[in-house]
Amino acid sequence: MLEVIVLTLVILLLIGALPAWPRGRWWSYFPGGGLKWLTMMMLLLLLVGRV
Questions:
Q1: How many Å apart are CA 13 and CA 40, to the nearest integer?
Q2: pLDDT confidence bin for 34, thresholds 50/70/90
Q3: How far is it, in rounded angstroms, from Cα 24 to Cα 31?
Q4: What pLDDT score was predicted for residue 36?
Q5: How far apart (Å, rounded) are the C-alpha atoms in residues 17 and 47?
Q6: Which of 5-9, 11-15, 44-48 has the lowest mean pLDDT?
Q7: How far is it, in rounded angstroms, from Cα 20 to Cα 3?
Q8: Which one, of 34, 39, 37, lies nearest residue 8 by Cα?
């Protein structure tokens, strides 16, 4: 159950990091890169069984 909640939260964060207007493109890799890193770490922890 916790895995589903965490996965849903990460997916919502990834969708929220997408630029919705041209000004968001000036952010460079910060929001998307950070969320991708977080997603990869969470998936790794889920696969290892730590979460």
A1: 13
A2: confident
A3: 10
A4: 78
A5: 24
A6: 11-15
A7: 28
A8: 39
